[in-house]
Task: inverse folding
């Protein structure tokens, strides 16, 4: 079984009842950093599957997910940095008509980030994956979230290897964006939360070591 098939956490309603766009220190005068992702970036509590936190699944605490690890790295040199978290599982599931989801993410666009991390692919349906449509819509989404055209955009592969990884790499090459490979992490149980959650889908998400590795690789790209 491929590692991505072990992710049995539903792509729907990952933030049921919660905003898809959230902020930390949004009025800060420092760098403005936008994190665009899925459950690995932020998943609301889901008691039915044993997930009780509101952060990147399956970190042991809010400050141990890759987003907040990166926030801490930025704050070390830029204490008044501003941050935005944009959860785009809905875009992933509907990527062929990605622009239809844009109204949900207007606040992230209006944030006018200086740095944008694109770290998602895992919920994109693998059956009948349309490489051309994905590349078109993925690139368009990056442009939408970068209204000034001045942001430094960092792309990554999936934590679990996905057919769309090559499409993301192609967009990175065409646009001159840094590309960060993460797929090897998802092949290693040490990087997951195996044994810490009864639900296998949750347990196959990155644990603290995986989150640290993701944060380190993304940080090195900027």
Result:
């Amino acid at each position: 079984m491929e590692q991505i098939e072990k992710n049995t956490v539903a792509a729907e309603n990952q933030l049921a009842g919660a905003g898809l766009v959230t902020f930390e220190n949004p009025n800060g005068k420092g760098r403005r950093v936008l994190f665009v992702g899925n459950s690995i970036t932020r998943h609301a509590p889901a008691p039915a599957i044993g997930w009780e936190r509101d952060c990147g699944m399956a970190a042991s605490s809010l400050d141990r997910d890759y987003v907040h690890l990166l926030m801490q790295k930025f704050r070390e040199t830029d204490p008044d940095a501003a941050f935005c978290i944009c959860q785009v599982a809905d875009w992933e599931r509907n990527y062929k008509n990605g622009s239809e989801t844009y109204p949900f993410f207007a606040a992230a666009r209006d944030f006018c980030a200086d740095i944008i991390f694109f770290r998602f692919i895992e919920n994109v349906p693998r059956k009948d994956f349309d490489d051309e449509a994905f590349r078109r819509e993925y690139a368009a989404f990056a442009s939408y979230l970068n209204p000034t055209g001045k942001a430094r955009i960092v792309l990554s592969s999936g934590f679990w290897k996905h057919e769309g990884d090559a499409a993301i790499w192609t967009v990175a090459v065409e646009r001159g964006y840094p590309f960060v490979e993460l797929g090897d992490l998802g092949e290693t149980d040490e990087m997951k939360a195996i044994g810490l959650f009864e639900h296998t889908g949750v347990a196959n998400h990155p644990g603290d070591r995986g989150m640290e590795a993701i944060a380190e690789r993304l940080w090195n790209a900027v």
About this structure: The first helix runs from residue 66 to 77.
